[in-house]
Amino acid sequence: AAEMARSIIGGMVRDHGFQGVVLIGKGGDPRFSHAAGSADIARGTALAVDTPFGIASISKRLTAVAIMRLIERHQLALDAPISAYLPTYRRDTGARVTLRHLLSNSSGVPNLFIPALRADPSLLSAELPAVEAIRRFASGDLAFEPGTRFDYTPTNWFIVLGIIEAATRMAYAEAMHALVLAPLGLRATRLAPSTSTAKSYRSVSPTVEWLDWRPSYRAASGGYFSTAHDLLRFAHKVYDTAFLARASRSALTTVEIASDSYALGARDRQLQIEGSGLAAAWETGNVAGYRSVVGHRLDGRGTVVILNNTAMSQRTMDEFADALLQLRI
Fold it and tell me: What is the pTM for the complete model shown?
C-alpha cells in the first residue's frame, strides 16, 4: 500500500506539479508520510512533513469544535437566537438567526466586507475589534430566510467569533487555545506564520509569492496555520474519541444544507470504497496559494491530510485524497 501511495503521489507531481505534504494515518497514528517540493523556493528550503501551512477554511471546523464545547458547558445553544449572545446586534435579524445557521453558512447575513474592501483596500490588513467588524460588515438586511440557502460568506464567522468572545469573556485566540488547541495537544497550530511556515505561491515558474493578510476578526473563518501531524491528531481526537460528547459529534457531522453537503464548519462526503458507500468528514482550505484537505473516514479506519502551497485546484486535491483513502495502510 505504501508503494501504491508513492505511485499516486508521483503521478500528482508529474501530472499536476504537486508540491506539498501528504500524511496518512489510522487511529491517530501516522502510517505513511511524504513531502515533495519547496517550502521557500528562493532559499532552497525543502518541505518537511512537519512544515506548517495556512489551512484557511479548516479553521472553521476548529472553531465549530470550540462552539460544541461551549454548548456542552451550557454556555451556548445551537438553536438560540444570536441576539441572546450579542445584545448589541440588531434585534430584528438577530432574533431570526441562530448559531446553527451561522455554522452551516445558511444565515442569510450578507457579506458587506467585499464591497467595503473594494471601496477601501486597506481594510485587508486593518485591525478592528470583533464587535466593530460585525457592526460594519455583518449587520445588513438578510439576503434570504435563514436556513433556506447556502452562502459561503466569511461574515457568518465574524459573528461566530464575536459570540465565542462574548461567551468566554476571552479574546478568540485565547478561547480557542483553552477550548481546542491545548486540550487536543495541537502545539503547532497557531494564528500566525512562523519562520518555518511554507511560503504561498501564485506561480512556481516564474516564482511569484501570494500574500494574504488576515486581521484578527477574520480568524475564525480562515486564519489558522497548522501541520499535517496536528491535523491528523485533530481528526482522530474529534471524530474517534470521547473528546466531544456523542451528540456533539453527531451534530458536527450531520449535513444541514444538502445542496452543498455542508454540516457545521465543514462538509461531509460519501466515499465509494471497495464498492460500498462510506461517510467521511471532509475539511478543505483555500487561501492565497495554500490548498488543504483533511479527509477522515467516520468509521475510524483512515485519515488523509494533504497540504499544498502552489494553488492547486481544489477538485484535484479532493480527487488526490479520495485515491489515498482507498488504500489499506
Answer: 0.96
